[in-house]
Design brief:
The chain has about 200 residues and is an all-alpha fold. Helix content is about 70%, strand content about 0%.
Length: about 200
């Protein structure tokens, strides 16, 4: 159960990192002792150590976020998997079937994204699945826990792993700040190892 809870927390972390611009709360989370290891270069970065927090966020981190999520790179599954390279923002998006089964509603306006297959939304969905599995373990509902694990494997295979590794490799190569370079690097390692973990445990 503890491993499932920890997996869920990491999915939540990477979801938040790539969903919207950095803020003080995000940086405070990353500075926690058990999270720092996922950002190995960030704390050695001179700008991170010396700049006022507001300048760091506005002049460096959020500029980089705009580059990797709005201007130069496209963080949507449909862009990578559709032959026409279009973003599917309507109800025909394949991720909707998974989301509907769990009453997961992507608040696109609040998150300022245009489609439910955004990297942040898909990682948040994985977080919710892990959270539901943790609760199933707590309730001694082994059947529900197994079903949720099967759904996680299916969502990873049929959605996350079809495109996210390529996007994260691109972010790692294009990012101008250690926050997003490290986040892409360790995020990629995490989703690949998590898929292997789920298959090994089944």
């Amino acid at each position: 159960m503890l491993e499932t809870e920890q997996r869920g927390l990491l999915y939540a972390l990477y979801s938040r990192l790539f969903l919207k611009e950095a803020d003080e709360t995000l940086l405070e989370t990353i500075e926690q002792e058990d999270i720092r290891e996922f950002f190995p270069n960030l704390f050695e970065w001179e700008a991170y150590r010396k700049l006022p927090r507001e300048d760091l966020i506005e002049k460096h981190l959020n500029v980089d976020f705009t580059e990797i999520s709005l201007l130069h790179l496209i963080p949507y599954e449909s862009f990578y998997v559709r032959e026409d390279g279009m973003i599917e923002s309507g109800g025909d998006n394949p991720v909707i079937q998974f989301y509907d089964d769990f009453n997961y509603i992507v608040e696109k306006d609040k998150a300022r994204i245009v489609s439910p297959d955004h990297i942040g939304a898909e990682l948040e969905f994985m977080h919710l699945l892990c959270d539901a599995q943790t609760k199933a373990f707590q309730n001694n509902d082994a059947a529900a826990a197994r079903e949720l694990e099967t759904i996680q494997k299916s969502f990873l295979k049929n959605h996350v792993l079809r495109w996210m590794p390529l996007y994260l490799i691109n972010v790692k190569n294009e990012a101008q700040t250690p926050l997003y370079h490290d986040g892409a690097m360790t995020g990629l390692e995490f989703i690949l190892s998590d898929y292997e973990y789920l298959h090994a445990s089944s």
